[in-house]
Amino acid sequence: MSSQKPALPRTLIRPPSLRVENITKFYPVGKSLFGSSKSFVHAVENVSLEIAKGGSFGIVGESGCGKTTLAKMLVKLIEPTAGRISVDLGDGQFTDCTTLGHQDTKEFRRKVQMIFQDPYESLNPRITIFDTIIEPLKVQKIGNLSERKVKVTKIMAEVGLTPVNDLMFRYPHELSGGQRQRVAIARALILDPIFLIADEPTSMLDVSVRTSIMKLMLDMRQRLNATFIYITHDMAVARYMCESIAVMYLGKIVEMGSTEDILQNPKHPYTKALISAVPVPDPTYERWPVLIKSGVAKPIDPLDRCRFFDRCLEATEHCENFSHPILENKAGGRAVACYEVS
Amino acid sequence: MNQNALEVENLSVEYTTRGGPVFAVNNVSFELKSGETIGIVGESGCGKTSLALSLMRILPDNAQISSGRIILDGVDVVAISDSEMRQYRWTGISMIFQAAMNSLNPVYTVGDQLLEAIEAHERITREDAFERIEALFDLVGLDPVLTDRYPHELSGGMRQRAVIAMSLASDPSVIVADEPTTALDVIVQERILRELQKIQQQRSMSMIYISHDLAVIAEVSDYIGVMYAGRMVEYGPANDIFANPTHPYTKALLDSVPSVKGPKRELVVLEGELPDLMQPATGCPFAPRCNKKTSVCTKSLPMRIDLGGRWVDCFNPLVELAGAANE
Question: Looking at chain B from residue 64 to 123, which residues have their Cβ under 8 Å from any Cβ of chain A?
Fold first, then answer.
């Protein structure tokens, strides 16, 4: 860690609590008989960023852009191929969480929690809601039985699982989709995490239920003072859930900044196309043309140039001949990875 | 000026289940002029897919159209036999299904599947059929070379385009699109919606566009029908519905949708759960969640109020009714 290193791309209002440096994840494809592989899916490549303490940070992008892979590396569900992730777990020190020992990993797991996309699959159908929510406390050996019961009852009321006494001993199949997602949120919050990572927690839910879960998560964020990382493909949801966002395309962050800024004034050609393609719930809205070449992005062994080159309408010769542009801090607290943006 | 391509009158669809009969579609009526699009919007379980399947008469075995009429080009397709209906499917009315992955057969090339659809309905030479398939691919923005490919060789967007091409194969006058872009990314979705609208204009085709996504419905629809618990509760021109929703449910839905454009307004949560269709309550199905509820709402079904070009089923609609307001 030398002081000459250039500043990491950041959107900070407060000091960072998570620092990601050059993180990369390759998946081998077409393994030979002896397990060696010549081709790799570049799921996430050379991503660096810092996330502010207590903020809500969104990772936005289309399917296959690597947003879930990035999130899973942040919670140590996947080991990165290369790179460092360091986290401030509340003691002001940055711990490199790629090289934690057994005991430290357990501590890490207590402080970093995840909420998954599909509440129909992320809950064990054979145990009750009470057992689901109390399990993290048992694993982490926190409190005795009566203390745990008090905690469970309290958190259930907080996330709107009421009447608590009625719902406590039900099984997941007896709950609606919205209630199940509330159980998943309660389970994640019961350990008072410092980081909460939610992977599309509302995309499986109905319109009216989605809003109530979004409200609940916003509410919890204010109450907990934890750092939220929210993964979504939906720009409109990101607008409500995240102070700042990173837009990903084919394993790279192409633009990063405050959510409202990016929505009003996107700089990267991909972000522009993405935002203009979002349908608007207003029949009188005159839409801008979506400026992007059609085509399918190939994540397997991409050429060493801008990932967006093949679909970009603003691409120049420079873009063709040079490596993928670095995500740089530009004017107005914005980081953009594009040669054409000054 | 336009005549009606489709009229649906008092349509009900009944499912026979172990718990008793369930009316997934209950007394739904609307009409659709040729060249226009009606967007059917509602949450899961509101009966919008059952409505689509009943229009095609491809309901599952335990479901049947229990009453009502579906008049397509002047013919009541509920009354005709199965073999007669076969002539209307694809040529009179066709459907774009939700999951393009599942509506294509993985062991045939996409070209062969289109060929099968065409040959099933028309006497046509192979050459003519292939010529048409290539023209259809061109129309939906697919390279005609792709006719030789298998479904797994195509991306999600390309598969959905192939499915759209197939639904257009026999030049239907009405197309039922059931969430055709729900599984797709926004940029692809935008392209396909444009393409559909272009084709619709060229062929003056009518479309029934079914979605839970109000933003997509706003993009494509001329008229909107809002469904709740099997009933259509509000119907009218898209601009009017979005500007002045009159049913409390429509209002609640619109208030809960986030948008990337315009000022960032507070989202309003619609409390409560969807009703259980197994045990229909007396009165308005939306009453338990409604903030405009009065004592009459739980006693009987609301009557239809005609608002001139649009209507609403509600005792307390969000409009000033001349004369009726002080009732």
Answer: none
Distance from CA of A143 to the nearest CA of B (A): 35
Residue B43 near residue A207 (C-beta atoms within 8 A): yes
Residues of chain A with Cβ-Cβ distance to B198 below 8 Å are none
Contact at 8 Å (CB) between B109 and B44?
Answer: no
Dist. CA A59–CA A138, nearest whole Å: 32
CB B269 within 8 A of CB B251: no
Would you call A15 exposed, middle or buried from its count of C-beta atoms within 10 A (0-12, 13-18, 19+)? exposed
Helix, strand, coil shares of chain B, percent, nearest 5, are 35, 25, 40
**pTM of the predicted protein model:** 0.89
Q: Sign of the C-alpha dihedral, residues B52, B57, B60, B65?
A: positive
Which residue among A208, A236, A278 sits closest to B270, beta carbon to beta carbon?
A208
The alpha carbon of B185 is separated from its chain's Cα centroid by a whole number of angstroms, namely: 20
B320: left (phi over 0), alpha (psi -120 to 50) or beta: beta
What residues 131-170 of chain B have any CB closer than 8 A to a CB of chain A?
141, 155
Nearest CB to B187 within list A208, A239, A274? A274
Question: What is the chain A residue with the closest CA to B43?
Answer: A206
- pLDDT at B88 exceeding the cut of 90: no
Amino acid at B134: E
Q: What is the pLDDT of residues A101-144, one digit of tens each?
A: 888 899 899 999 999 988 888 999 999 999 999 999 999 999 99
Instruction: Read off the tokens for A237.
Output: 């949801």
Query: Could you give the CA distance from residue A57 to residue A36 in angstroms, rounded to a whole number?
Result: 37
Of the candidates A64, A128, A107, A118, the residue with the CA atom closest to the CA atom of residue A302: A64
- Looking at the complex, report in whole angstroms how far the Cα of residue A87 sits from the nearest Cα belonging to chain B: 32
Q: Do residues A256 and A244 make contact, with C-beta atoms less than 8 angstroms apart?
A: yes
Partners of B141 on chain A (C-beta within 8 Å) are 294
pLDDT tens string B249-279: 999 999 999 999 888 888 999 888 888 888 8
Q: What share of chain A is helix, strand, coil (3-state, %, to 5)?
A: 35, 25, 45
Say if the ipTM goes beyond 0.95.
no
- Of residues B215, B254, B267, nearest to A215 (C-beta): B267
DSSP state of B326: G
d(CA B197, CA B273): 35
Q: Which tokens hold the place of A240?
A: 């409500």
Q: Is A208's CB within 8 Å of B252's CB?
A: yes
List of E strands, chain B: 4-17, 20-33, 37-41, 63-72, 75-76, 93-96, 174-178, 206-211, 223-228, 231-237, 304-306, 311-313
